[in-house]
Amino acid sequence: MSDSNENGNAGFTRRAFMMSTALAAGALTLPPMALANEDEFAATSGEPVYFRGWQYKPDVVQDNVDKYNKLHSGKVDYQTVTGDYPALMEKSLISGDKLDMIYANPPTAVRFYEAGWIKPADDLLSGPAAIADMYDKVRDAWTYKGKVLGLSYFLSPRGIICVNRQRQEELGIKDEDLPKTWDEFYAHLDALSAKGVKDAFLPHWFNEFYGISWAFLWEVINRGGTTVDAKTHAPTVAVDNAAGKTLAAWKKLWKSGKVPEEVLTYTEANVVDGFASGRYLYSCQAGYNLALFNNKEKSKIAGKVGFIPYRGQAWGLLDSALYLTTTRKRSPALDADVSKFVSFYGYKNTSGKVWVGQGWMENSMLFSGYKTVMESKETQESLKGFLAREGDVKELLDLYAQTAAPNDVWKVVWAEELNSWLRKRLADFLLKDDSVETVIGELNAQILSLNKKYKL
Amino acid sequence: MAPPIKEHAKALSNFQFALLLTLPVLLFLVVLMGYPLGYAVWLSLHDIQFVFGRMRVEYVGFGNYVAVYKSPEFWHAAWISVRFTVESVILTIAIGLGLALVMNSRVGRSRAIRTLMLLPWAVSLYGAGTMWFYLTSGQTGIVTSLSYWAGFDRPLNLMSASSVVDILALGNAWNLAPLVGFFLLANLTTIPQRLYDLAAIDCLGAWGRFIHVTLPPLRFTLFVFTSIATVLSLRLFDFIDVMSRGGPGNSSTVLPYLLYDISFKQLELGYGAAMSFYLLALIVAATLVLYFVWGRREEAR
Q: Suppose A431 and one of A250, A404, A441, B249 were both cysteines; which one would form an S-S bond, judging by CB atoms 3.0 to 4.6 Å apart?
């Protein structure tokens, strides 16, 4: 997002034009300057660079790190953080642990930036070039107070409704009859239930920081609503708008007994296993899990998993993660080493390829924020391999293009605190007899209290 | 001229001698425990917020203690803790006693069987939590497998709001009971055979032999392990975190889990510290009740 947008000016200002021109010029000139020489990434300080992230395919990450260390005499020390990542990482930063590069989702990045623990991507060796290579939507999602907070780790639509086409066929549901909106989807579930169809839906209501609370946020934006006002941060949730309708639909679904209660104790892995078992007809999932569901070694319904396409309403939110560079005190040589490693890992290698990002795309279907990756021939080919039908590639990219991040709430310093509150409150709301009015009232009060705490 | 030293002042009493021997350890403990305890007291008297990454501290006196006392969330977690602990202790002692009796029998004397019985105790709470989650969830659970085998077509979920605490208590007991069993076995092996012979002469049946011959020598060990299991269950966190994460909803949110959530996720350190003293009070009260109701009688025997 440019400065002008942050300030609320809708038009394309002269300043924005100058910035765009500068970025474009950077894109044209910097890669050859910065990346042509292999020594550009060579570590010189002899000190370790501490890289920490959550536990997603740590073997792949370790291989990537090993390759960097070998090629560029690096001393990168990589470890994973197991558990509630944003909270654990925040504690590490508060206590001054040695951290140089870390993963983060956008709301975490905003919080860490406000605390002064991370520095924007512009300062990195490949920062300007990488920023110029990002799609506008992605750059906007990762920009806070005029600064892009990090380099691209991955993007993916999360909350797409995966379809078990084997069961779809058995039940005689035609593609053109698939629901187009959330209201239609819940009505469709009711109709299936009336016909005696069981295990129709496994929702994304699992008990992790990106589980049930994110499911609420995306359903609100999918229905055209917001949780808070993007400028004033005042709550915008009400019983008769998208938030209230979402809660009412959830309560009805829960009370009907169509959803297994244990989903509230699940991790994401359990929800993925549940759908890969072939039991469920529909399930809300991260887009990249389509690759797993269509993999014979990991799924009982491989080759038979699709998703409800975009037909006027997006499904889910734009999930993404960045590589952040911390501001811990380092010697100038080590600081340069960190910049080199983050640039290598988060953008291009000495051959000018987005080596790590392209690898994630080809091996795990993790989308990238960079045009270089998403528009490459290799990406198009690998997408065909991950998806059940050739037509799914276009449908997925169309859906991805329409999927938005909940920037209204994720670009506020307290977003993670609200997320933690929502996670507990929404599960309680389903289990107890609380009314939609009660939860909406409490949500409003919680947002106001957070605004007061941070003097917003 | 120096005053004459009195004879009795030369020798240390037993208590003084014991104090002298344990003084280094006591000092070490005071330093090791005194600082964190004092810091926790200090935290509990302050409202501590992390705003924009910086700690904001404000003295609130006993405000945090009052806030905890008035919190429905706290009382709910306290009730779940008590329920979980009572169930855990009963199951631990019952299973431990059962294991001890089996290991003391002819069949149970096999080393292989004794090793097998001890194995659950060797499993880490993290590992036990993961295993029990997979055993009891509707999706992958053993009960679901059995129900399918019996011809039913629905998964049976034991991790529901109504049963999750019972399942957690069973898993906790599965982990603790082998240790209890081995200590009770040590007691059982000291019971002279002639007592059972005399019981046979008195025509006591199996139940009579158990109550009048087997149980009396085990009572002190049972008291000790009831106390230990109570304390361990009241402060259990990792098993619950792995298995249910306090859910569904807050159905299995015990006090240590709530403390973790408040102190380490929400970073409400002052409020969390105050709550931790309530937990400490609960643990002390539970052990005192056990001592006065049961322990003193065992000591008097």
A: B249
Which one of A84, A262, A430 has the shortest CB-CB distance to B138? A262
Question: In this structure, what are the phi and psi dihedrals at residue A134, rounded to the nearest 5 degrees?
Answer: -80, 150
Burial class (CB in 10 A: 0-12, 13-18, 19+), B36: exposed
Put simply, whether the predicted model's pTM sits higher than 0.90 gets the answer no
Q: Which long-range contacts link B243-246 to residues 24+ away (Cβ below 8 Å)?
A: B243/B129, B243/B130, B243/B132, B243/B133, B243/B168, B243/B171, B244/A265, B244/B133, B244/B159, B244/B164, B244/B168, B245/A207, B245/A265
Give dist(CA B230, CA B88) in Å, integer. Answer: 8
CB-nearest partner of A262 from B50, B51, B159: B159
Cis peptide before B248 (omega within 30 of 0): yes
Tokens of B259: 């403390």
- How confident is the model over B42-93, as pLDDT tens digits? 999 999 988 888 888 999 999 999 999 999 999 999 999 999 999 999 999 9
Of the candidates B52, B139, B249, which has its C-beta nearest A431's C-beta? B249
Per DSSP, the three-state class of A84 is coil
Nearest to A233 by CA among A2, A444, A421: A444
A358-370 burial, b if ≥16 CB within 10 A, otherwise e?
bbbbbebbbbbbb
Distance from CA of A100 to the nearest CA of B (A): 17
Chain B: give the shortest CA distance to residue A360, in Å.
Answer: 29
On whether any CB of chain B is under 8 Å from the CB of A274, the answer is yes
Q: Are B83 and B172 in contact (CB under 8 A)?
A: no
Which residues in chain A are closer than 8 Å to B50, comparing Cβ atoms? 90, 94
Phi then psi dihedrals of residue A32, to 5 deg: -65, -35
A326-362 pLDDT, tens digit each: 999 999 999 999 999 999 999 999 889 999 999 999 9
CB contact under 8 A, B160 and A261: yes
- Residue from A242, A246, A292 nearest A269 by CA: A292
Q: Which residues of B touch A418 (CB under 8 A)?
A: none
Please state which CATH class domain B74-123+169-300 belongs to. mainly alpha
Q: What residues in chain B have their Cβ under 8 A from chain A's Cβ atoms?
A: 49-55, 133, 137-140, 154-155, 157, 159-161, 164, 244-245, 247-251, 261, 264-267
Q: Residue B113 forms beta bridges with which residues? A: none
Q: Are B64 and B44 within 8 A, CB to CB?
A: yes
The reply to whether A269 touches chain B by the CB within 8 Å rule is no
β-pair type (A49-54, A101-104)? parallel
Question: Which chain A positions have a beta carbon within 8 Å of B161's beta carbon?
Answer: 261, 431
Q: Helix, strand, coil shares of chain B as percentages rounded to 5?
A: 75, 5, 20
Contact A420, A212 (CB under 8 A): no
- Decide: residue B15, CB within 10 A, 0-12 exposed, 13-18 middle, 19+ buried: exposed
**Shortest Cα–Cα distance, A57 to chain B (Å):** 19
Structure tokens at A279: 């039991």
Name the residue with tokens 């106001």: A448
> Which tokens sit at A307?
């998703």
Report yes or no: A327 at the B interface, CB cutoff 8 Å.
Answer: no
Q: Which chain B residue lies closest to A90 (C-alpha atoms)? A: B53
Please name the helix (run of DSSP H) or strand (run of DSSP E) that holds residue A152, with its range, or none.
strand A151-164
Question: pLDDT tens digits, residue range B100-156?
Answer: 999 988 887 788 888 888 899 999 999 999 899 888 888 777 888 888 888 877 778
